[in-house]
């Protein structure tokens, strides 16, 4: 909903900015020299084009189509919010060798990048998930040296990843190297059926979501240590 301001409107807007103290929500620093982020988000963008209208001027809706920092993945909702203590958790992961892609996987899986979800993620056997990345037992026993040669019935041994961040990250990297990143995404998202059929739209959406979060982290070094969580609306399965 980007609008052009008539010359008189420009003068009035400038005069108002000089004479009237700001109050209420403030727009974030400008993503472009002459357009700040909208303090009210998409509330002033009824047509969804990424442009809002606040304080007599156009503004950019964060993560919208006009946001140069990165719009949401096509057809998906996304955003960010603060989670107390998340910066410290990021630091713990970085401390054992995680990179921004690893942070993005953990960040998509849970708001606190933690293992405080139901045991096995409510699943058992090869479908059970463990660790901050929610790695499934099928891939763990297939691609991680720690669990090599074990069968589906010994799935509870994956519980060690819920308590050992370094082991969790090591298995993640070994699995990604074992399968290759494209196939890893498919199996990580959808287990055995994903490995058999890696080209579904759902898997593509999951992969796009992780990469979008990775790109937001990489866009500003502060995101490696602050409490900001980036999210994409990907249904749990």
Write the layout of secondary structure elements.
Layout: H1 7-19, E1 51-54, E2 57-60, E3 78-82, H2 86-95, H3 100-109, E4 129-130, E5 135-136, H4 137-143, H5 165-179, H6 181-196, H7 201-219, E6 228-232
Antiparallel strand pairs: 1-2, 3-6, 4-5
Query: Biggest sheet, open or closed, and with what strands and sense?
Result: 2 strands, antiparallel
Number of E-type strands? 6
What structural category do the secondary elements indicate?
Answer: mainly alpha
| Helical amount | 25-40%
Spatially, the strands of the biggest sheet line up as: 1-2
Overall 3D shape: elongated
Q: Give the low-pLDDT segments.
A: 1-30
Average pLDDT works out at 86
Separation of termini?
A: 36 Å
Number of helices: 7
- The run of helices and strands is HEEEHHEEHHHHE
Write down the Rg.
22 Å
- Percent strand equals 5-15%
């Amino acid at each position: 909903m980007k609008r052009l301001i008539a010359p008189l409107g420009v003068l009035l807007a400038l005069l108002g900015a000089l004479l009237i103290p700001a109050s209420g929500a403030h727009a974030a620093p400008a993503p472009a020299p002459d357009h700040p982020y909208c303090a009210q988000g998409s509330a002033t963008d009824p047509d969804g084009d990424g442009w809002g209208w606040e304080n007599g001027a156009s503004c950019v809706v964060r993560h919208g189509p006009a946001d140069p920092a990165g719009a949401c993945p096509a057809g998906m909702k996304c955003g960010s919010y603060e989670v107390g203590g998340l910066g410290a958790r990021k630091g713990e992961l970085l401390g054992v060798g995680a990179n921004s892609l690893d942070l993005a996987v953990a960040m998509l899986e849970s708001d606190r990048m933690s293992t405080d979800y139901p045991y096995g993620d409510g699943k058992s056997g090869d479908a059970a998930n463990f660790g901050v990345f929610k790695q499934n037992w099928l891939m763990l026993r297939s691609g991680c040296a720690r669990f090599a040669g074990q069968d589906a019935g010994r799935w509870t041994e994956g519980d060690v990843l819920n308590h050992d961040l370094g082991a969790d990250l090591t298995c993640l990297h070994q699995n990604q190297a074992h399968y290759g990143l494209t196939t890893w995404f498919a199996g990580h998202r959808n287990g055995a059926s994903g490995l058999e059929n890696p080209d579904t739209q759902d898997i593509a959406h999951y992969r796009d979501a992780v990469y979008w979060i990775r790109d937001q982290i990489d866009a500003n070094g502060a995101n490696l240590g602050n409490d900001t969580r980036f999210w994409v609306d990907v249904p749990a399965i």
